[in-house]
Amino acid sequence: MPEPLLSVIVPVFNEEGLIDTLLQRCFAALESITAAFELICVDDGSRDQTLPRLLAARAAEPRLKVLVLSRNFGHQSAYTAGLHAAKGQYVAMMDGDLQDPPELLPSMYELLRTNQCDIAYGQRTDRAEGWGRQLLIKGFHGIFSSFSRMKQSDNVGNFSMLNRKALDAFLSLHEKNRYLPGLRAFIGFRQLPVPYARQARHDGTLPKMSYKRLFALALDALFSFSDLPIKICLYTGLFGMIVFFLGGIWVLVSKALNVAPFGWSSLELSIYFIGSIQLLFLGVLGEYVFRIYRENQNRPIYFIQDYHDE
């Protein structure tokens, strides 16, 4: 009986300096598991020599597949494109910057092969990143875990392996604003963590995910899986009402004592309290309306330019 095919999805974007090491370590890890594998590298609109290097490597190793997107669609979309192309009974997701060690794939595969779980995901025990970035990421994971009620999403990312049953459920989710760790937690099934220390980028450069992109991804996660923005509006509104009520009392008292400055009551209470709360509410509602608009547009989240397979 032939071994089940193992697929590994690796999105890459301007990683020409890492490609050779990435492929070498991935092939070594996968060969230690099975000879029946496919490594799908998704080129997310690279503008350097990443794609030529991948195609040159594929000429020597046909188990390397290269999926070329028409432009840069973003990390989550690149993963989704690779997942749709995967043919394996077991499918893994791994970042292409070697911060997620491919040497952990055999441990994940063993958990799935022995039927101990349907999904094995990497859980970070440590991060080799700057303290500011670590503080922001830990703060996000703490907030998301608390308000989304998805406890297994704490200190995790995309690094994971799913069996075909779990993957089919995962691919049945079609929303455009995608946060893959949240979607993976949402589908349920038997999930087990594989602890590891997240490493620094192999080439020593800064992570490709800028603070702006991290912030946008955090917003997608919170608006898609948590009612925190609505609760912030509610609690801010309640706080504003309390402040407005106390301020109203102070206005009456100050007027009775004839110590109120002229025009103070109307300007302070109306502009600073009610105005700021209304602007906050409009901003939150605008985020929801924009996301609803994107979903109703129903545009594809990626376009494939080429797929170099057998």
Spell out the key features of this protein.
310 residues, alpha/beta, Spore Coat Polysaccharide Biosynthesis Protein SpsA, Chain A, 8-stranded mixed sheet, 8 strands, 17% strand, transmembrane helix, membrane, transmembrane
Secondary-structure topology with pairs:
Layout lengths: L5 E7 L6 H13 L5 E7 L6 H11 L3 E6 L5 H11 L4 E4 L11 H9 L5 E9 L3 H18 L7 E8 H8 L8 H7 L4 E8 L12 H15 L2 H29 L7 H34 L6 E5 L2
Parallel strand pairs: 1-2, 1-4, 2-3, 5-7
Antiparallel strand pairs: 3-8, 4-6, 5-6
Characterise the protein shown here.
The protein has 310 residues and is an alpha/beta fold. The chain folds into two domains: 212 residues, Spore Coat Polysaccharide Biosynthesis Protein SpsA, Chain A (Alpha-Beta Complex); 70 residues. It is built from ten helices and eight strands. The chain has an eight-stranded mixed sheet with strand order 7-5-6-4-1-2-3-8, with helices on both faces. Helix 1 links the parallel strand 1 and strand 2. Helix 5 packs parallel to helix 8. It is a multi-pass membrane protein. This is Glycosyltransferase 2-like domain-containing protein. Its main location: membrane. It is found in: Membrane.
Brief characterization of the structure:
The chain has helices spanning 19-31, 50-60, 75-85, 105-113, 131-148, 164-171, 180-186, 211-225, 228-256, 264-297; strands at residues 6-12, 37-43, 64-69, 90-93, 119-127, 156-163, 191-198, 304-308. By secondary structure, it is an alpha/beta fold.
Kindly provide the name of the CATH class of the largest domain: Alpha Beta
Assembly state (oligomeric):
single chain
Mean pLDDT: 77
Taking pLDDT < 50 over at least 5 consecutive residues as the criterion, the unreliable ranges are none
For the largest beta-sheet, the strand count, sense and barrel status come to: 8 strands, mixed
